[in-house]
Amino acid sequence: MTLADPGFWRRPPDERLAEFARLRGLDAPVFVPERRGGYHALVRHADVVAASRKPDVFISGPGVTMPRPPRWVRLVFGDSMVNLDDPRHASLRGIVSRAFTPRMVARIADNVALVAEDIVENVIRNRPADFVEAVATQLPFRVICDMMGIPERYRGPILQQVNHATGNTGVAGRRLRVPGRSLRALARLHRIVARVGRERRRYPTDDLISALVTAGLGARELGAFFSLLLVAGVETTRNTIAHGLVLLTGHPEQRALLLSDLDRYLPGFVEEVVRHSSPIIQFRRTVARDHDLNGYPLRAGDDVVLFYTSANRDEAVFARPDAFDITRSPNPHVGFGGGGPHFCLGASLARQELTVLFRELLTRLPEVRATGAPQLVPSSFDNRVGRLPFATAPLIVSA
Ligand code: HEM
User: Which pTM value belongs to this model?
Assistant: First the structure.
């Protein structure tokens, strides 16, 4: 069974990680044959970092997702910044960064705190059963919608499309492919966001969509950017939050340490959850010209896949790589990417959301814990948690 086989991605996480450990021990990256060509699997930390930081050689223009979406997808949906190289990438990222003014960033920080309080308040009042729906999804989704200025009436339909767009990435059928349902959901997402963009162009307000349409972003670019923000920002962060609770539950000694001094240990906890869970499993690059990657020859036109999930367990960089250790320092994980121009645009927002939410949860509900195994959704792209049962009081075990 190879990495190109959907069956591999349905295996339990420990078995997949054992296979990545074996691949890291080989002399060179393996070539994974595939229906449309195949790719070199970069599984070591040093290779993932080197490829991320040489964007003139390892380009994103031909697309960064694996499995590759059908070619018409680019034509219909337009380019999002993950799939662009310089100069277009730098120009789009520059426009977006300019929209994050200090005032906007301060407002977002205040909002993260308010939304986190509201979520925990709801847990206390209503005792929901599923952590993913009631907690993990709520924070990133509401924060991005508030930031963008999405009116309340569009939020339900948008969340539905985000869920469809990211479900079972690639693993539903007999071979790895992008499910049609995901693409249709993306198309609907684009339409909704484009509609909001048109409204803001006519009546600008004090939100990110208004800032971007005023800065001259066209409807297609706007649709592509916001679908990316929603899919990249909601799916990743909610999975990280859910894995965070699973890890806390499974490691009582780390939980006790964290609770002993939240200010001191929360930042290390957040980094270690991202490293240990690797919410994004991989992204692809295409080799622009013949290149020697740490002694391994690559040819122009080759594809490489950067397996963050494997680099984050590389024993050459992390002592006891499978241990969950919130005091790990330094922790040079590649959960947000290996550096370079595409490094996660939302990394500081994600860190802030995780820190604020776990502080609120652990302060008001210090007994919060998972009460069963997470329902993992098979995917070769993200480490997704579908459902997670949880409780906020200690379990009473009868004799
Ligand atoms: C724990 C949560 C998150 C994780 C693990 C994560 C992970 C990643 C990774 C691995 C990349 C690719 C980096 C590369 O190619 O070098 C990326 C890119 C990106 N992320 Fe995140 N992300 C998270 C949260 C967010 C949030 C909250 C947002 C937005 C609000 C966001 C927006 C983006 C965007 C726009 C890109 C593309 C940047 C570019 O191509 O220039 N991400 N993220």
Answer: 0.94
